[in-house]
Amino acid sequence: MKAENAKKIYIETYGCQMNFSDSEIVASVLAEHGYLPTKEVQAADIILVNTCSIRAHAEERVKKRLRQFRSLKKKNPGLTIGLLGCMADRIKYALGDEESLLDLVAGPDAYRDLPRLLGQVESGQRGVNTLLSLEETYADITPVRLGSNGVSAFISIMRGCENFCSYCVVPYTRGKERSRDAGSILKEAQQLFTQGFREVTLLGQNVNSYRWKEGDTHEVSFDQLLGRIAAIDPKLRIRFATSHPKDLSDELLKTMATYPNICRAIHLPVQSGSNLVLRRMNRKYTRETYMERVESIRKFLPGCAISTDIISGFCDETEENHLETLSLMEWARFDYAFMFKYSERPMTPAAKRLVDNVPEEVKERRLREVIDLQQKLSLVSNRQDQGREFEVLIEGTSKRSNNQFMGRNSQNKVVVFPSIDALPGDYVTVKILSSTSATLLGEAVS
């Protein structure tokens, strides 16, 4: 297909970092067949919406966006609209009239099939493939870095999940857990560094359960993979997300302590501070074992930032359970958190066996208390950094001013400082002078 005749594809992504990584894989698959990405929705011949099902709010945003696309389709009847990702296999639950707008539906394991599906659409049929795979990891595909800043990139190291938390739809939308070839991950990381990227984030629903069988006898664990990537070059920073508390090993923490370029930041979702709620959530750890993991992080990685996820108002959560969550937050002193009120998801064990019986106004009030406490904890954490110096990787200019740089330190905290003679991708030492609950403010000292 000649470039002047190539169809333009606009990809809009919702949800987690894994979804953004998947969109880059989609762009790569379609580029191989002559389709060109565009950042302008009005210029697109094909609109693909990569979706998230983790919360009801995410699905409502997608439905609202599809309604907006309806007017584009009326103006351009030849416009193709497709839905990708986690909502693909459950549109009968998630969509109403918006489903009639779709020409194409593809699940997370069907992206190699997109050229064929688009061919079906061109012939007047609807293209649908929502089959899950036991093997697909897209290991051989070099992602197109959509909207990249040229400094940071995602690397997907595994797909699927088998934890079966009672509230979570991911095992049913992304399938069984499977790890990607360790060699292909190392190759991608090396290529990114050679291209000038200075930070990679390893992605998976539960990265620390990564296992790859190398040969007949040797198995590569996540901590071993992390060490191999860190050894590529000291100037390549490595982050990862997300870790399940039951799988966060001391071996991983020791590996992190060995390599300064493995960032001192761990995202460790707790969800609740109550053992009764954790049991109903099927989280496979207790409040006490979670606290023991936090203590190990503090022991092996002093100064490591710890972030978390918290769900307020899960089934049968009492006021006492809620207070246990607040007390755990105060004990752990989380640096930041992602906080949500519980929304029941179809297909999950919680939807089938538990009752969503916490009143909406109680959920909202408890969530507000969680958010208020975390803002205080984040402010305390950032104020403790005032007067300290950090190595910051420049990512670009600040959103508020072209005269300021923005970057992050090893602890994944956003740092803003006046511009100096440097470029995105450079490391610079910054002294922190002041802070908000979300940002460190300072000046370059070297």
What's the topology here?
Layout: E1 8-13, H1 17-31, E2 36-37, E3 46-51, H2 56-75, E4 80-85, H3 91-94, E5 104-106, H4 114-122, E6 127-129, E7 152-156, E8 158-159, H5 170-174, E9 178-179, H6 182-194, E10 199-203, E11 211-214, E12 218-221, H7 222-230, E13 237-241, H8 250-258, E14 265-267, H9 275-281, H10 287-300, E15 305-312, H11 319-332, E16 336-341, H12 349-353, H13 360-383, E17 389-397, E18 404-408, E19 414-418, E20 427-435, E21 439-444
Parallel strand pairs: 1-2, 1-3, 3-4, 4-5, 5-6, 7-10, 10-13, 14-15, 15-16, 19-21
Antiparallel strand pairs: 8-9, 11-12, 17-18, 17-20, 18-19, 20-21
Helix pairs in contact: 7-8, 11-13
Q: Output the strand order for the largest sheet.
A: 2-1-3-4-5-6
- Globally, the shape reads globular
What is the radius of gyration?
22 Å
CATH superfamily of the largest domain: Methylthiotransferase, N-terminal domain
Number of helices: 13
Quickly count the domains.
4
For the residues shown, what is the average pLDDT? 94
**In angstroms, what separates the terminal alpha carbons?**
50 Å
Beta strand %:
15-25%
CATH architecture of the largest domain: 3-Layer(aba) Sandwich
Helix content: 25-40%
SS class: alpha/beta
CATH topology of the largest domain: Rossmann fold
